Protein 1
Amino acid sequence: MMHDDIARQVADRVNAARLIESIDALAAFGARDDGGVNRPALGERDIEARRFLIERARALGCSVSVDACANLFIRRDGDTALAPVMTGSHIDTQPTGGKLDGCYGVLAGFEVLAALNDANVRTRRPLEVAIWTNEEGTRFSPGAMGSSAFVEPSRMTRYADVRDVDGVTLRAALDAHHAAFPELGARGSHDAAHAFVELHIEQGPQLENAGVPLAVVSGIQGVRWYALHCAGTAAHAGTTPMPLRRDAMTLAIALHRELDGVAHELGRDDTRVTFGRWNVEPNSINTIPSAVTFIVDFRHPDARVLAAFDERAHAIAQRHGARLEALFSHAPVAFDAAVLSRIDDACRALDANALHLTSGAFHDAMYLAQHCASGMLFVPSRGGISHNPAEATDAGHLVLGARVLAHCLTTLCND
Ligand code: HGY
Ligand code: MN
Ligand code: MN
């Protein structure tokens, strides 16, 4: 039987009810009252969610292994020991996250494993579903920590001492994960995979505005995160005359205004600049702030604009006497043409219309692209909303995305 026929058979065994049930079941770990999810990387809820997925993986007849950054690898053996095909994403969430960001890609990978079993299909290559640690970067910075450590293990030396807002180190969080799953074997080899395909929600409005159910993602824009540390002198809010103050917040607001202006001047309509995290000390109504730290998240598709912003940001910080700390940087990524063509083929095989677009959000696939031929597939986000409890995607789109993923992974596993 031709590869395409087999791939079609597997796609046809994707079970809508099973996929939707798994999304709702995973969302229970860290469920918020408003329908969203708050599941910080390697926290208790994440550990319990991982336990739930490890049990489901074993029920599917798969083995589960782990690496130094607690990335999980759910493996369905193939008929050979050739390099595996990989898929997957992340299950850590934003504090006011939704049920789908990352989770959908992991659970669609599980659905493909189940569909292969239901179709009684053996593949030439192994198939691995990866659960990458700390993609959001909201507990431990930088983002996409797990996938970046998988691609370059030496990064773990620097990552281990990174602390969350409560002062807990990544090392301590990894120790707690190991204590929770002492039986998990090490994945060991980091030999290149045959290919990596990540399925994800778009998290923006393009697909919905175009009325198209799928996107083959040609690349990801670049990202820079900086912390701006502004110093002042704590003093009494009532007694200290304005000219005598060293108010850290006054300095921070001046920096914010200039950085925002430069971001829009350099990047024009493609600029995405966000100042989402502020820390004020002592954060008291009637004490002049002695220290303010805020984080800038700057994104742009053009590497030259990212470099120009970097230069201007350093100059602005220096001129104002603030300390700029570079937290995270990833250049724009272009995915592998051959893998994108296979994803396109799968869309066509299932008579599904697909756009080509560049991702505004970063994803683990940006690092996997350094490891092996990689590509991404998107489904629409209702209202373009994400990183918000209202994040949602029509069930029909979720199922179609899983079917295309099943078709694509099956053909890649038979290369
Ligand atoms: O920030 C991002 O782009 C991703 O959603 N973590
Ligand atoms: Mn994500
Ligand atoms: Mn996200």
Protein 2
Amino acid sequence: MTSLRGRLARLLTPKIEAAGLEIGTSALKVVELRPGNPPSLSALAMRPMPPGLIQDDEIVDAEGLAEEIKVLFDEAKISKRFAVTAVSNRQAITRNINVPKMTLQELDEAIKWEAERYIPFPIDEVVLDYFVLDNPDDVEDGEQLEVVIAAARLDLITQQIDYLKLAGLEPVVVDIKPFALLRSLTMSLSSEHLGKTTLSGTGIDNEIGVVLEIAASNTTITLVRGDRVLMNRNIGVSGDDFTAAIQRSFGLDFDSAEEVKIDYGTATIPTEDEEELLNFDAKREQFSPSRVYEALRPILVDLTTEIRRSLEFFRVQAGEANINRMVIAGGGAKLRGLAEAIGDALGFRVELSDPWLTVTADTNRFDTEYLKKVAPEFAVPLGLALRGVTGID
Ligand code: ATP
Ligand code: MG
């Protein structure tokens, strides 16, 4: 969809390298990479989102946010001014659609009309992007092409661009968070990494992988086969819901409840050992791991029920589906024992993802323990940074 002039301009100018910036509801995060195969980490930083800048996923204080972004880039010592950023899955629509076989040039003209009926906004008020999954040369005449469409409201994209400009940045791509996530989790999802042998032709390549991101206010589930996105949906239970449950049970403010969740929270019934190990502060005895677990349990049940529903929904649509591996990301995935609890509920193995597998990091410059600790919440900004060095189209 890039204009011919745009394409020519890109050929004549050096390739842009951009940092990946995620404006999350609980934190701002930036990652900068140096191009290479694989790319290498050159900088990262994270700052909690100050209260009052974002409400319900919408930015309410543009100047305050711009200031925070500037400080974030300074902290990370990033001098690049180009940035790849993203809107959340709730602010965008992605779908796989089938269109009659046509040439890519014809599709470029027709996609707007083909996509229109799947988008609940007037087509002229959205930014539409698409990716063709089939090679038209491999598709018989009369058959259909599968295309992923992504649409976001033009006003939200324009807003996002304005905030970045206010912070002195030049936005080059506005992506969608689940797509960024997939880019940084390809290694975590690969069969080889999960200890299985990948032998083409044995059917293992046909397996469906699931990526679940549990962030502060958004949870998304994405089903993929190879590099093909099969389904992408929002789930109505996210990290902050766990905090809110602790708030209600113990009558705490949000920040104190957040602390209790991180210190004592578990997703599985605490064992006696855990009970002792986590009960490190006698003054806070009321927050015994088992009491905190009781507060979290209804939310855990909601989460696993919703995941199961999404998988059922997919199975009904797709017929036979061999789903047996899942990786989880997002800060909410760090709740103790969560991968295990979801795995038990679904009956297959679930693992915490490691987005850093897609890049190299100089251990003299970056603390390995720190990277490991923040891996789940850096999956999205890392995916954005990957787009910033491996091709902007
Ligand atoms: P969003 O993408 O939804 O706008 P975000 O990018 O700011 O939000 P993340 O940084 O991925 O969100 O995750 C923040 C969430 O992770 C919060 O709900 C926080 O409570 C939760 N979280 C962080 N650390 C832990 C932990 N150790 N245990 C449990 N939950 C945690
Ligand atoms: Mg996020």
Protein 3
Amino acid sequence: MDFNPTSEQKMIRDAARSFARGKILPHARRWDIEEAYPRELLNEMGKLGFLGVPVPEQYGGAGLDYISEAMVFEEIGYADSSVRTTLSVQMSLVELTILAWGTEEQKKTYLPRLCSAEWIGCFGLTEPGAGSDAGNLATRAVRQGSDWVLNGQKTWISNGTWADLAVIFAQTEPGSKHRGMVAFLVETKSAGFQTQKMKGKLGLKASDTGELFLENVRVPDSARLGEVGQGFKIAMSALDNGRYGVASGCVGIAQHALDCSIAYSKEREAFGKPIAGFQLMQEMLADLYVETQAARLLVYQAGMAKNEGRKSTIEVSVCKYYASEVAKRAADKAIQIHGGYGYSNEFAPERLWRDARVASLYEGTSQIQQLILGRHLTGIQAYEDEVRREPAQVG
Ligand code: COS
């Protein structure tokens, strides 16, 4: 076990840090207020290799390891979780899913475009009536000759209105639950494919979130990802990557909360002294530091499993659960340390707090992670009706 980053990992981390602190952080507050960031930012990140970190070079990626990927997510997430969310969906949920399940043709066609940000991808699993219960899809896929016809609606889709390519999950046999699920790579310019922006989010305001509407969208059988009946497994294995990205981004939120709290507490005076010297402040800073570092190490533990090519579901659930809860607590503590100023968008903690909130909802709630871990520890499957009582998903 070695906790020291390799020279390659250091290089990509430093490049991501300098890009994030120079080109994202100074604008994050404005983008949050304007509820958008410039699409061209992604092209710049594509050129630097941040959009295809673990994708092999032959498909246009950077060919690096999963710890490097986590470091990029942490650095971008430190600056702006909206931008990190775009990156997570693009890299973890779309590219890595095509890499794992796609045909050679699909990999060659789509991965270089996605790694360079020429194309944007989204992940169409969540529906108005299916969030945590991801096997309960209403979107239908019906075979017609050599084509498939897709009908349905997806909601809370990150990158939804920007996307050129959507991974769409659908049901082939209603009533068969996850056994009849199938996945497709659907180009969003296809006839019958429409999107609509979702507004009014608490956080991640600058990120693109949309609804997808599929009305008689016809795709060839060659657009199918994996086999009919493998859709649920594809979705779950994709989430093993997606949740890892969310957890890494949460470490970035927590680190930002810690850094700005240290800086503020050394500057701000009360009772004639910098508040950093008061022990109750130091207690909060110490907790922030320990929890951030613990979350980071749990992310690296999952990254090591991924680097070794092992199934990482458990390690990923552990770090997603912990890091997303830590990010919320850290942002909350940062507000407390900043006092009244923490309640204003003039300072970072307010945005960190709003952005952190979604992390224990999307890509599997904290309760879903507990359920996965509970099953793992006891060997007992949760009761079906318990799964259905989960709150609605954001994804
Ligand atoms: N990787 C590969 N396959 C997996 C898997 C994983 N991580 N997790 C489950 N599977 C497979 C199982 O092996 C099983 O296969 P068989 O039918 O061949 O035995 C199948 O998928 C069904 O698994 P399971 O019985 O565990 O499914 P459940 O319906 O009980 O669902 C939960 C399990 C609740 C954990 C799952 O539905 C889930 O993660 N829900 C949350 C979805 C989510 O995160 N949504 C967020 C929006 S998407 S951005």
